[in-house]
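Troubleshooting entry. The earlier prediction with beta-D-galactopyranose gave an output that would not parse, so I re-checked the input for stray whitespace and re-submitted. Clean input:
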Amino acid sequence: MGAILDGNRLVLGTCYYPEHWPKEIWREDLERMLAAGIEVIRIAEFAWSKVEPTEGNFTYSFFDEFLDLAEEAGMKVIFCTPTATPPAWLTEKYPEVLNADINGILYRHGARRHYNYNSPVYQELSARITEKFASHYASRPCIIGWQIDNEVNCEMNVFYSESDSKAFRVFLKEKYGTLDALNEAWGTAFWNQTYTDWEEIHVPRKTYSDSTNPHEVLDYTRFISNSARNFVKMQSDIIRKYLKPDDFITTNGLFGNLDNHQMVKESLDFMTYDSYPNFAYCLGAYDDKPGNMKDRKWSRNLAEVRSLSPVFGIMEQQSGANGWNTRMEAPTPRPGQMTLWTMQSVAHGADYVSYFRWRTCTMGTEIYWHGILDYSSRDNRRIAEVKDIHAKFQGMKEMAGSIYEAKVGIVKDYDNVWDAQLDVWHGRVEEASQKALFKALQLSHTPFDFVYLNDASNAEDLKKYQVLFYPHATIMTKEREAVLRAYVEAGGTLVIGCRSGYKNMSGRCVMDKLPGLLSDLTGTDIPEYSFIAPDAGKVTVKWDDTEFEASVFADLLEPVGDGKQEAAYTSDYYAGSGALISNAVGKGKAYYYGSAFNAESARVFLEKLNVINPYGDIVKAPEGCEIAVRAKGEDKFLFVLNYDKNPVQIELCKKGTDLYTGKEVSGQMELAGYQVLVVKL
Ligand code: GAL
């Protein structure tokens, strides 16, 4: 896809801000970048005023001059639309474009992302600046692609302006048609919330103890997602009219209250991600408890990106100490860490890695955000590391376009993600399981994918996975149940966790026996359930000879139909009740587990279901290393990433080619602190 994901090589880039620096240093900057192996820059995402300094007056010379230089130097450019930072003249004249907090207080000029997506004025002026940017610059030979806005829904992903209430009503009228249908879906009979006129409906407002109707908030979250997606699509449709044939449209993410999958599908060619693993080392936030995943946790986010675009780009990869919110409290990457984090991104499918940022900012809110170069821009260790990464990329070319391999999937869907963030107690179950599964999978060297489900999903999308975990499918629909059933019938293994199937799409609880629509598929009935009380002590489960601890919640299970009790609780009044039921359906099996996962129970499932450590006969490495494999045709590319600052011993049980050196390797070897081994098998 375009010049950065062409399937032939791995490409380096950086984020550059011509508007931050005197023109006299532009040329030297570009030449130094190219000499370091950086061949792409991203520019202009916050530079609206450089093109429209006052309303309706457009001047293109600033970026024309810069792009002339870029073309002369041979630098490729990702150009951005500047809508993340409206100019002062705009918000001053049209305050209705501003976002507001839940009390209706407007967010003023001075930061960024302070606009709302639904203001007709902002939509019009954003469409116009996008049209001006695209029509003027898109034909430039140095431009290879476009980034829309910057980090859609970052920093601010709730919107409470007047325009939002108006647009929310339109969204709800389209969705429900009548107020009767809306009242029913939102359960407004409760606490006399019945609406008799559409004008009575607003985006959530301040209420006593912030207890807004949960069904309204769920729809409101869907509405935010739609608003953001429509804003991106509006820009993407404009840019496409001017796009050169090989050029691409992307945006950088990933942020909440946004159906990123639908956004990519309708507006983008692929997703890019901003990866800042050094936040794991922030003073205050740092947690050195054994088993803490620290910077390795970013592999979870990279798995999310892969679910959007199996081959993707990193638009911003951390290259220096972090800035404004923690004022350099996330320290400068230690020698080797930039390479480690770059390879972490590549291991998951990034064929393009662009560092944030070329030079350290000397002003403004990000005054302390360090880039590759420090304030003086003298040559330093980090630019030397970039050069070294570029050299390493030369040996890794043939893996471009290859896809991360996984036999385990974690199923998610936006309705449940959004319902869990609002239904705070359920979030506890969901969060515990998500963390535990990730940890158990990572530490046991078991690669996994995230798989997003919606009512249009097809069992074909799921069949490549031997095992799927759908930890807490609270909201369930007949359509989704049918997809899961077809997956199991075809031979798949599905594991569902506690509190599943008890809500409908409005987030209202169903009156069926639990787990509702999942009862038949899992052969399970849940006559009783409870949070595990703090005084309950250790609640244990026994599966064959293996005993492990239940977490957070206990559904007490009974088999129905052909369901078979596999495990029982062994403590407290739960003792003897079913904790795990299996149900053979077609060629596969569905499991219902009555609790949330912890790292121990998740590991037991991986072992029992025979999916743990699939590369165990190829490589042996300590838990502190991540194992990933990208595959293209018959070729397999193995990554062993050492996140520890100390050396570790590993064993490669098969001969392969070390892609850094081109030499054949096998047997026992030592990986230095932060070292990554990249081997073609
Ligand atoms: C990103 C953002 C950049 C910059 C960076 C460092 O989230 O896209 O503009 O702010 O973080 O804070």
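This one parsed fine. The mean pLDDT is 96.
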